[in-house]
Design a protein that fits this description.
The protein has three helices and ten strands, in the order E-E-E-E-E-E-H-E-H-E-H-E-E. It is of the alpha+beta class. It has one domain: Gcn5-related N-acetyltransferase (GNAT) (Aminopeptidase, 3-Layer(aba) Sandwich). The strands form two sheets. It has an eight-stranded mixed sheet with strand order 1-2-3-4-5-8-10-9, with helices on one face. The chain has a two-stranded antiparallel ribbon with strand order 6-7. A hairpin with a 5-residue loop joins strand 1 and strand 2. The protein is elongated. Bound molecules: coenzyme A. Coenzyme A binds next to strand 5, helix 2 and helix 3.
Length: 155
Amino acid sequence: MKREKLIHDRHGRILKFSQERCDELVYFKLDHAGACAAYAHGRIDGAVLVITDLFVESNCVIRQPDFLKRLFGQKTSAINFQNQGIGSQLVITMITYARSKGLMRIENRWPENDVRRDSPLAQWFQKRGFKADEASMKMDLKAPAHDDSKYMPKP
Ligand SMILES: CC(C)(COP(=O)(O)OP(=O)(O)OC[C@H]1O[C@@H](n2cnc3c(N)ncnc32)[C@H](O)[C@@H]1OP(=O)(O)O)[C@@H](O)C(=O)NCCC(=O)NCCS
């Protein structure tokens, strides 16, 4: 089932957020004026949400919104959606989604996408709470059980 919602970016531009699940595949997408501004894809693998792709458009081409500019030949306009928190927000959305489905972990597996272990992008994920190991970059989603024994009366 596809869900849609209108939100605003930091510059007040209207973005249509949509979320869709097809079997084990999950899609999150942001459209602006009919063009794709950003997306994140994931695959549910057992108790893990594997991030298969994440992209924020730096050159989103839309129909020029200004009628006068269109009249004088400027038919399209390009928008950079990067570096305004959209990628971070998509990761938070995926984490929230995974938690809501009771999944234990969210992962970015090294060979499956373009993220190399020593790349700035790996650091980008680490800054957002992911930890790197041999096979992937991951974040555990289940909090460790609380130790409530200190509240028990002493014998
Ligand atoms: C990497 C990407 C998802 C980040 O999304 P974004 O919305 O631009 O990033 P945010 O605004 O949430 O975060 C901004 C921070 O990310 C950094 N950043 C932006 N693009 C980056 C990149 N390609 N690599 C490393 N860091 C990057 C910025 O310098 C900024 O750093 P700061 O927090 O220290 O100021 C986006 O730039 C992108 O899609 N890049 C190209 C495709 C790609 O590499 N996809 C990942 C495949 S899994």
